[in-house]
Design brief:
single chain; 326 residues; alpha/beta; Rossmann fold; five-stranded parallel sheet; four-stranded parallel sheet; globular; binds phosphoric acid mono(formamide)ester; binds norvaline
């Protein structure tokens, strides 16, 4: 791994590099819990660009940067020229001359790649329409904390099988050599090019793409995500109709025939009607729970919120590995 490596997508990293990031995340978690200062990057400056909303990723980058001793500047999409009055390339050159690293959450993967190319500083992908790589380090860190190791495990993802999180899980599990199943209706299965990438970078394990929920049998980790992702303009009802059979509920958990199985969710989740959008969906279509039932969500909430907390520790590891030799 070079000293100033960006994190734009998972395939830029080897199995060993991803494992090293997971282990470094676990070390940073220990330092944080023991209140041992770790301001190793004191005086550096990072910028956080968000074209889409965020709770976890923004908070994690902010606190991780501050814990590492850095100055962190948030650049919301309505507050900077990017994309409106100034190109990605020109913005990248300016930011690269002032900041030591840049986080970007937005729509197009090509934009985060351009930021890296033209800024000359490490760029971290905080989610695009195609990938969500920083989420993966937190997810597999959580899996490692829970099971003690990653080898031999099977992760089954249910729901929209061609969104950023599904793409990232498929490819990351393949790189790590973990068995991965994407269980989704045919219309929402991963694109052939994403499956091909996973196969090219696979170090072990099996890849399964199916529309049959019986495939959860034997899974150790069940994972789901929202049915409509940020920026998607789709008919919500059509999506619900396509995906209701893939809801993470107790009947589906029973199909794993594995009492030790855990449930993960990157969050936010539609598990009750305590949000404006969920309330509207309930009023319009009568569904109080979408991708995960409230009973399953509550039962597995300790590990789901552990996963959310791990965004902090893993993003800290990602920033540190990029900037430690600057
Ligand atoms: N999981 C995740 O990326 O959450 P946010 O959208 O809140 O950052
Ligand atoms: N697939 C979701 C992930 C949110 C963290 C989205 O892109 O909205």
């Amino acid at each position: 791994m070079t000293a100033t490596k960006s994190f734009l997508k998972e395939i830029d990293y080897t199995k060993e590099e991803l494992e090293a990031l997971i282990d470094l995340s676990l070390q940073f978690k220990k330092l944080k819990k023991q209140r041992i200062p770790h301001n190793y990057l004191e005086g550096l400056n990072i910028a956080l660009i968000f074209e889409k909303t965020s709770t976890r990723t923004r908070s994690a980058f902010t606190v991780a940067g501050q814990d590492l001793g850095m100055n962190v500047t948030y650049l919301g999409s309505n507050e900077i020229q990017l994309g409106k009055k100034e190109s990605v390339a020109d913005t990248a050159k300016v930011l690269g001359s002032m900041f030591d690293g840049i986080e970007y959450r937005g729509f197009k993967q090509e934009h985060v790649e351009m930021l890296a190319e033209f800024s000359g500083v490490p760029v971290w992908n905080g989610l695009t329409d195609t990938w969500h790589p920083t989420q993966m380090i937190a997810d597999f860190m959580t899996v490692k904390e829970h099971f003690g190791q990653l080898d031999g495990l099977t992760l089954a993802y249910l729901g929209d099988g061609r969104n950023n999180v599904a793409n990232s899980l498929l490819v990351t599990a393949a790189i790590l050599g973990i068995n991965v199943k994407i269980i989704a209706p045919k219309a929402l299965q991963p694109k052939a090019e994403i499956v091909a990438l996973a196969q090219q970078h696979q170090t072990g394990g099996d890849i399964t793409i199916t529309d049959d929920t019986a495939a959860v049998k034997g899974a150790d980790i069940l994972y789901t995500d929202v049915w409509v992702s940020m920026g998607e303009e789709v008919d919500f009802k059509e999506r619900i109709d396509l995906l209701m059979d893939y809801q993470l509920n107790q009947a589906l958990l029973d199909k794993t025939a594995n009492a030790e199985a855990i449930v993960l969710h990157c969050l936010p989740a539609f598990h009750d009607t305590n949000t404006e959008i969920a309330q509207t969906i309930y009023e319009q279509y009568g569904y109080a729970e979408l991708e995960i039932t409230d009973a399953v969500f509550q039962k597995y909430s300790p590990v789901i919120f552990q996963e959310a907390e791990n965004r902090l520790h893993s993003i800290k590891a990602i920033i540190y590995q990029s900037l430690k030799n600057i």
